[in-house]
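Table 4 source record.
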Amino acid sequence: MDPAAERLAPLLGQLVNYERSRPDRRLWDLATMRALLTREGAPPAPRPAVQVGGSKGKGTTCAFLAGLVHAAGGRAGCYSSPHVTTLLERVRVGDADIPVVELERLLRVLLAAPSERAPTFFEAMTAAAAQWFCEQGVDLAIWEVGLGGRFDATTAMPVDASIVTTIELEHTDVLGDTIAAIAGEKAPVIRERGIGFTGTTGEALAVIRAHAASVRAELRVLGEHFGVRGVRWDGATARGELWLPDGRALPFALPDAAAFDLPALALAAAAFAHVLPDHPLRLDPAPRPTLPCRFEVRAEPDGEVLVLDGAHTEQSLRAVAAEVRRRWPRSRPVVLFGSAAGKRWQPALSELLATADGFVVTAVSGTTSEDPAAIAAFLASCGTTADVAPDAATGLRRLRARPGPRLVVGSFYLAGEVRRLVDAVPPPER
């Protein structure tokens, strides 16, 4: 259990938490968030600021952007979700989570303010982050979208640049069941007369372009206006050249890189160069953020490796599978998988079938979960079998009974729970 969440439960427990209840339609808008930001005594929203939306890669892009600020000698305030270990990691300044006593103070003031509707959990956390970043005097505020974009609480924040990473079929019950519909919900993070940076392609990019034109915003596209080229691998370090919209081409070296990190680095660097043009852009080496459960590789006592990743969409699991093959070309991983309810887990899980040597499936705790028996039945229909574990702890034990590499995917809730289990009780030597 997270001690911070326990301490704040009397405050946050009274708020609707759509991350856990997973509604099948949108039940929120920007009015309450805007009222919170303009309440009596509220400080102005922190500037400069960047908002990061998209289907996958948001958290990594935010972390790279924050790392570039720190490498330049500044301090970034980064608001992200979901959290893996503690609620406090959602609100960070520099390398430090917000202290629980400060978050408690901010929430008490926010929740005491008169309003027509009580804020949701996410709205309250967003407003608290805004005030904390102001109090700390950050050089850049970074806002990761929670869901969609058009009506996400972070879209109430004024920003100086926006990023849309990728678009996939996800949250289809709320955002729409086509790429075009989902892109239409995410595109509004690009503001009127603002500037946007995107890694989207195809139909999604067409929607993003149309939105940018309709709001008279500039749009910079990965691969057209900026990107990476000449990538080569020096052991675990990716080296190459990063070219920017302003015409510069800079050498970069990214230690302990995954191939799917490179678009995130390029998006972050392009936005950084625009928003903070007077700050040095340090890319050799580039700051390598350490993010829990984003292809987090843990050494196991028996010499194997355990990889924790919250990937749960087709594209993200395809990227994870490719990275596993690149790093361990002679081995096939055994996979512990679980899915929150409402996810497109069948096509997502299909991306692992050719890579995995076996599966263990379990329920996801902390939110509504897909039935592990249904997942096992699907795997059986695909010609493979899976052990069904009653909980994550049992699933981890069964995973460790097999040779590695060992891979935990399907949900940040599952990856985070396994991470806590690994950190809490060291496994016995085999």
